[in-house]
Amino acid sequence: MELRAEDVFRPGAFPEYTYISRKSTVSDLPYEFRLMQAIRVSGFLTSLVGPSKMGKTILCEKVIGFENIVEVSGADFDEDTDFWKLISAKAGLAYEGQFASEKLIFSTSKKYTKKDIFSLTKDKIIEYYRENNLVLVIDDFHYAPAGKRIQIAQQLKDAIRRGFKAIVVSLPHRADEAIRQNADLSGRLSLINMEPWKVDDLKEIAKLGFGKLGIFIEDSVAAQIAVESLSSPQLMQYICLNICTILEMSGEKNKQIGQEILETAYRYTTANFEYGDVVFLMQKGPNTRGKSRNTFRTVDGHDHDIYELIVKSIAENPPIMKLEFEDVKERIYRLLADGSKTPSPQMIRESLVKLQELLYEREDIFKVLDWKEGVLYILDPLFLFYLRWGGAR
What we know:
Blueprint: H1 5-8, H2 31-39, E1 45-49, H3 56-64, E2 69-73, H4 83-90, E3 96-105, E4 110-119, H5 122-131, E5 135-139, H6 146-160, E6 166-170, H7 177-180, E7 189-193, H8 199-212, H9 219-228, H10 233-250, H11 259-269, H12 276-284, E8 296-297, E9 303-304, H13 306-314, E10 322-324, H14 325-335, H15 345-359, E11 369-372, E12 375-378, H16 381-389
Parallel strand pairs: 1-6, 1-7, 2-5, 5-6
Antiparallel strand pairs: 3-4, 8-9, 10-12, 11-12
């Protein structure tokens, strides 16, 4: 059967035909081997850390098998969530309920129905996971409330001693302190830091996938797509799929993949990204309470306030997910027209603090950046890609 583009390039599912195995530069071992090794060590909790949209969940599916994973998200928890009730439900177990049984009274030959209440114990849930070879994967652990993360770590500490297998997935520099700095888990952690994808690794997705479809792609073009994919294999898959769609719509499957097709594919890729409200909020900035902000003239002849300048600077070339403060400042200054007044470094720093506070008051989709210790981290590559190609600038 002839392969279709959607069979080969799968941004939202396991990429059967374009799965790329990578090695850690620290140990020179494949990540698949490291994860398999980690989950086979009894009594150890696995901490898997890596940037967003980098294939951490796909790695778990490759090693463990989709049918053996019970996946929950940190966003599934609030302060009052019962940990064991949630993970039993995710595994398809009824945590509590009632059952009816009929009994015969011999003296009267009558039957009566008795209703009993049941509630699973933690031990029963652990036993079920063990017997069915299930592995709990807590994705986006950083989305759980801070106090809840500590409680989860305490629950897992006891469970792993009984043969329970779990993997905690989180972002670098954030929210896994409850796991890594837990004294009770000291010596009981398997730590795996997934490094960002390199351009050469991402290029292989395009070359392998287009090869499966009989479509020629130049190495330099694959490299361009890889750079725009911002270290995200998911984004790389998405762009390649849209290139195939454009070629199919044109009726010229053998048409050369040039710059025009690339830029069209980039714009099409952003069509289903829901970051419009995020960008609008960032550009608007905090409530001024009726006061007007200072504006600065840019090289395109427009006036922008500091928050609009920050957004524009993040989207500038080259696309980077981690910016030192000096990088942010220099990007902003390059946007300004000759002779224009410039925002002070202190103003830029204060605005970055306020911008993060503004975003973290909202839903999870708004938490796209982190300003920490003089470094601006872009947490979501899809958001940065949207900034660059979604017409939001």
